[in-house]
């Protein structure tokens, strides 16, 4: 792409140049075609760029106006023309970066119209536009979603709103966004409960709101099957922000919700690193919890700021944090429909257009290096072997009889008395295991 319609002038195709490269516009670790543990790096990581932070956000915050150089955001009196311009910029970026996927909210790609019919027509027009760009560039859709949190009607939630008419509008919006995702061959559809929560319990009926949310998700499941969408439905947990309390608090909370409402098997999880830390967990904890519950779906990679208590959505830069998450993902068999979406935004002072490249390249190299370390941890089996041996007693006759229900408390009392069972504590070896992880990170090449 050259000429007047090129937005990222001065940046060409980003390519792999190896760990010794000093050029910030090259990959040092991400080598898409390199085979790691039996699969191409690109197919393991399934990287996606998010539309909203990268192309919609102007750099505004609660204290000030937009700062970022984003010429495609100049709307003028032609909102659909501006949306097309923004999409051209987005696909130029995806193609130059070489990431195989992108993710979007309905309102990211098509602005609200004056009437529901105009809003729907705009989305349809922009879905057609996206299909053209996707065919031209080969970029695919990791997931689509609906923005059920920006419009004032959703101030008190969408599905959990006290007004059933708001529920109805949200349902109509999700039906359309799911169809748009299906039309674009999306691999997943995400439900992030933006304002499904409360500001104060004084005006909130928790039991009703949970029942409404469950009904909503059932309707989405039903619509998915009706239209033949083959992708995975994913709920994205977050504990708070924008609401004081969000119902999809963390992986364990959503797992309980899905079980209570007969939704297990229909919905999995999209886990975001910064949401994990806001919930008081490590990202490792959230990924391992989802894997243990069989709910691993996809990842929103980013990082928070240890000194700030809000969702800063910074680009990930900790190889260790990403190695631990990827270790759990690889141990669970790797991504199926999921992948790694960079739900990341620049700092407000990173105003230049090419800063978008710097942020993404650094993040991509971080997860690529983490993949090498995680794959080598899986391959040598050091952690798995230790864990296996730690629980070996449960594969013996005593453990088996406890778990299969044949031993009662009284049986166990008798056995302890008669056999003189007197176990001695064994080391959990945490520091040794931490050394193993460090060694694999240091040697990953
Ligand atoms: C908000 C967030 C969203 C979802 C999609 O914290 O992570 O961008 O990923 O709605
Ligand atoms: Co997210």
Description of the structure:
There is one protein chain. By secondary structure, this protein is an alpha/beta fold. The chain has two domains: 32-380, Alpha-Beta Barrel (TIM Barrel); 385-443, no CATH class. Helices cover 46% and strands 11% of the residues. The chain has helices at 41-45, 51-56, 79-97, 106-109, 116-137, 164-183, 206-227, 251-260, 273-278, 283-292, 319-331, 355-380, 382-390, 397-403, 409-419, 430-443; strands at residues 35-36, 39-40, 47-50, 101-105, 140-145, 188-192, 197-198, 232-236, 245-246, 267-272, 296-301, 340-342. An eight-stranded parallel barrel has the order 3-4-5-6-8-10-11-12, surrounded by four helices. Strand 11, helix 11 and strand 12 form a beta-alpha-beta unit. The mean pLDDT is 97. Bound molecules: D-xylulose and cobalt (II) ion (CO). The site of cobalt (II) ion has 4 residues, from loops.
List key phrases describing it.
single chain, alpha/beta, 2 domains, 8-stranded parallel beta barrel, two-stranded antiparallel ribbon, 12 strands, 11% strand, binds D-xylulose
């Amino acid at each position: 792409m050259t000429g007047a319609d090129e937005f990222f002038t001065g940046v060409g195709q980003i390519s792999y140049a190896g760990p010794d490269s000093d050029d910030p516009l090259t990959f040092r670790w991400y080598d898409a075609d390199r085979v790691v543990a039996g699969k191409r790096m690109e197919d393991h990581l399934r990287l996606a760029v998010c539309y909203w932070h990268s192309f919609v956000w102007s750099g505004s915050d609660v204290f000030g106006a937009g700062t970022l150089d984003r010429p495609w955001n100049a709307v003028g009196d032609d909102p659909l023309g501006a949306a097309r311009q923004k999409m051209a910029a987005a696909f130029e970026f995806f193609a130059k970066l070489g990431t195989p996927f992108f993710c979007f909210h309905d309102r990211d790609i098509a602005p609200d119209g004056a009437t529901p019919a105009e809003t729907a027509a705009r989305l349809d027009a922009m879905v057609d536009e996206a299909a053209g760009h996707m065919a031209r560039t080969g970029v695919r859709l990791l997931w689509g979603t609906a923005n059920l949190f920006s419009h004032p009607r959703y101030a008190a939630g969408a599905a959990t709103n006290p007004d059933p008419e708001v529920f109805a509008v949200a349902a109509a919006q999700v039906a359309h966004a799911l169809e748009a995702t299906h039309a674009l061959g999306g691999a997943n559809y995400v439900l992030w409960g933006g304002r499904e929560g409360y500001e104060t319990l004084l005006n909130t009926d928790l039991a009703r709101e949970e029942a409404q949310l469950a009904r909503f998700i059932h309707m989405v499941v039903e619509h998915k099957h009706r239209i033949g969408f083959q992708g995975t439905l994913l709920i994205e947990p977050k504990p708070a922000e924008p609401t004081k309390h969000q119902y999809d608090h963390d992986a364990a909370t959503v797992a309980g919700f899905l079980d209570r409402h007969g939704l297990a098997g229909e919905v999995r999880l999209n886990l975001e690193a910064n949401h994990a830390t806001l919930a008081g967990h490590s990202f490792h904890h959230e990924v391992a919890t989802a894997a243990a519950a069989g709910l691993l779906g996809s990842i929103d990679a980013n990082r928070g700021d240890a000194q700030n208590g809000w969702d800063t959505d910074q680009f990930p830069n900790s190889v260790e944090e990403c190695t631990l998450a990827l270790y759990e993902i690889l141990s669970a068999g790797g991504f199926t429909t999921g992948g790694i979406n960079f739900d990341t935004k620049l700092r407000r002072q990173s105003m230049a257009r090419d800063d978008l490249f710097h942020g993404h390249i650094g993040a991509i190299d971080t997860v690529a290096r983490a993949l090498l370390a995680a794959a080598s941890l899986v391959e040598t089996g050091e952690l798995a072997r230790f864990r296996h041996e730690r629980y070996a007693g449960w594969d013996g006759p005593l453990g088996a009889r406890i778990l299969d229900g044949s031993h009662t408390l009284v049986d166990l009392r008798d056995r302890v008395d008669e056999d003189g069972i007197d176990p001695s504590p064994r080391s959990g070896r945490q520091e040794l295991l931490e050394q193993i992880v460090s060694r694999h990170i240091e040697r990953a090449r």
